[in-house]
Amino acid sequence: MHEHGHDPAHSHDPAHSHLDGMDVRVRALETLLTQKGYVDPAALDRIIETYETRVGPHNGAAVVAKAWAEPAYREWLLRDATAAIAALGYTGRQGEHMVAVENTPEVHNMVVCTLCSCYPWPVLGLPPVWYKSAPYRAKAVLDPRGVLADFGVTLPQGTTIRVWDSTAEVRYLVLPMRPAGTEGLTETALAALVTRDAMIGTGLAKAPT
User: Is 113 designated active site?
Assistant: First the structure.
């Protein structure tokens, strides 16, 4: 875990990565396996669709909304995220050991994986392309305030930014701050305000309309 305090803001163009070598190899392998009849393209599509749309960040949003709405669940999530998330039925590949870190007015948390692209699929779906890019991984550690600026997020200078390095063993979920004016909303309505980026720490929860 890396911690940064009063970093000066920098403005850089967002780093977007195109197909890297691994993506090219995966697609080539997918094509070969499909052509040889080892993989049913329809089955592959269903798996991808599950993580892109049915899982997506919806599971994680439900976790965050419950934590906002129920203080006891929030405490459980921060104490033992793996168990608290599994209790809602979200568990499995790439989400075995979870740690939840809470954003406050004093501390903002961001998640990066400096050596790979470790990502909690069961709660966040498929990782965005930029999460796996070398520029994001490097800059998030060296200049997290600049990365947030790239994503259009400006925090008060007094807010400390903590960068958590995800690993093969531990995956992080950021619990964003609950937006103002949401006191009367249901958990379903609250979940609609939770974005994938807010749960990575590169964004904030949306304000109610």
Answer: yes
